[in-house]
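Entry:
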Amino acid sequence: MKKIVAEPYRDIDFSNAKRGPVIRSEPGKTKISIRIDNAVIEYFRAQVERAGAGNYQTLMNDALLGFIQQRSVIDAVRQVVREELSSPRAKPRQARVRAAVA
């Protein structure tokens, strides 16, 4: 086993150094640390392997964005249905069924 040797002391001037990341993050993205089930990570990594390229974190982000968009569409449809059902011009469903039978 190869021994790791510490680098010799160097006199480095940090007087003009700036704090923060060396590489700035993309606008609109935030770096976080979360715990994800192993099965979820394995699923997305397998998707990347099958595709032959990509990043599992990007796939996870896309899946979350898709869920948010789907939920917002479903919520919008529910709101429209509620408004239509509660409007005074809407006829009760049973009255329409009875009229069709008669």
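The longest helix spans residues 56-86.
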